[in-house]
Design goal:
Mean pLDDT: 87
Order of helices and strands: HEHHEHEHEEEH
Largest sheet: 6 strands, antiparallel
Helix content: 25-40%
Shape: elongated
Structural class: alpha+beta
Distance between the termini: 30 Å
Number of strands: 6
Strand content: 15-25%
Low-confidence stretches: none
Length: 172
């Protein structure tokens, strides 16, 4: 059985989300290279058991490799703009947490740092963990989980279009 590129991307993002969720909330942004599992096992045979449980990897299957030391911080766009990947990396994914105010809750907040701080403390604030990824062929996808609804996973191709566009530029 061959795993299609979009299916492989979604599977990788789900795996990343499970991994990050296991670490709890209040995590920094995490960046992952997505590489073909077959190629990774060829290069590092000792990883086979960990990656596939001893089974043969499916053609098209991707494995996520976390990029230690990634410092996305508040200037995530700038951090991503400095990244390029070798051709051995078939895709890239990122996990990050953000907050937002629903509806018009932010209408009366001032702009700038003062407004950001008020939003951070606002009682209607919602926290969300997003895992977004893209492949070199242009496929993109995202999954997200609200802290207040830990059993529900949101997903879609256009879930976070600005973030997937920024990730795509790292693969050019």
């Amino acid at each position: 059985m061959h795993v299609s590129a979009p299916d492989a991307l979604v599977a990788s993002l789900m795996e990343i989300e499970r991994h990050v969720a296991g670490l709890g909330w209040d995590q920094p942004a995490r960046l992952f290279a997505l590489v073909p599992t077959v190629e990774l096992i060829e290069a590092e045979p000792q990883l086979a058991e960990h990656l596939t449980g001893g089974a043969d990897p499916q053609p098209g299957q991707l494995s996520a490799i976390e990029q230690e030391g990634f410092a996305g911080g508040t200037e995530l766009g700038e951090a991503l703009a400095r990244i390029t990947w070798p051709q051995t990396v078939h895709g890239v994914a990122i996990s990050l947490e953000r907050f937002f105010l629903p509806g018009t809750a932010d209408a009366d907040l001032p702009s700038g740092p003062a407004g950001d701080e008020q939003a951070r403390r606002h009682p209607a604030r919602q926290e969300i963990r997003v895992v977004a990824g893209v492949l070199r062929d242009g496929a993109g996808y995202g999954v997200a989980r609200l802290r207040t609804h830990p059993d529900e996973l949101l997903s879609g191709r256009d879930l976070v279009p600005g973030l997937t566009a920024a990730l795509s530029r790292t693969l050019e």
